[in-house]
Amino acid sequence: MIGLHLSRMARNMTDTPKLPFGIKNRRKDPDEWDKTIVAFQSPYRLKDLCLDQSADPVAEETRGGKQEFKVRLATSEDRRKSASLLIEKMYSWRGYDADALGKDPNKVTLVAYQDEKVVGTLTLGLDSHEGMVVDQLYKNETNQLRAAGRKPCDITRLAVDQDIKSKSVLAALFHLSFIYGRNFHHATDFLIEVNPRHVLFYQRMLGFEPFGEERICPRVNAPAVLLRLDLTHADEQIVQYGGMGSAVQGIKSIYPYFFSREDELGITQRLQRGE
Prior knowledge:
Elements: E1 3-5, H1 30-35, E2 38-45, E3 62-73, H2 77-92, E4 107-114, E5 117-126, H3 135-147, E6 152-160, H4 167-184, E7 189-194, H5 199-206, E8 209-217, E9 222-230, H6 231-241, H7 261-274
Parallel strand pairs: 6-7
Antiparallel strand pairs: 1-2, 2-3, 3-4, 4-5, 5-6, 7-9, 8-9
C-alpha cells in the first residue's frame, strides 16, 4: 500500500477542514501551500524505470527501505531550473536534445523531490488556441480528436532520475497529471511522443496505444511515435487497482501504485480549496 500524507476528505467533511502538512491558512502562507501537493512513502524500487525502458521492467523489482517523496508544482523560476537540469541530464545521457522549461499558463509542470533533490518531473500541456507541443509533429492526429469532440492534453518533459527508479514516483506524477487534466480541465485523452523502443513499456504500464506513425522529432533530434491514452481507461484502472501497490499479483501496469480513488478525491478537493 502507498503511504499518502493527506487529509481524508471522505472521512472529514467539516465546515473548516484541516489543511495538510501543518498549514493553518493558505491565504496567509500561499507559498507553503504551493510547496507540496502530496508527500508519500515508497518501499518499492526498480532497477530501470526512466525513459529508456526494458521490455519487462516489472521483473526488476526489488525491496528496499522506505523512501519519502514530495511532489510540487514548478511555480517558480528556481523550480523550473531544477526540473530542467534533470531533463537535460536524462535526455543528454541518451543523446536527445532538450530546451529549458519556461513559464506557460497552458502548462502544468510537476516536480518530484526526495530530500529536496529533484528526482522526477512531468509537464502536462493543456489544449488551447495556441495548440499543444504534439501539434508540431502530429497536428492531423490531434485535430481528429478535436473534431470528434474530445479534449486532449499532452505529456512532455518526462524524466525520472535513474538513481531513484521508484514505481511510486512515476505513478504519482501521472496520477497528479490525471487529476489536473481530467478532474480540473475535463480532458478525455493524454497524448505523448515516445521513442519507438519505448512503445511497449507505455502500453503495458499505462495503457497507451499507438496513434501516430513514426517520425523524426526535431525538438529532441530523435525518432518518435505518438501514443494516446483514453482517460476513461485510466479512470477504470485507478478505481480497480489504485492504492493497492504490491498487494496486486500478476498486474504489469503501474496503476496499483497510483493513489486510491479516495486519496484522489482528497487531493482534488484540497487543490480546489486552494484556488
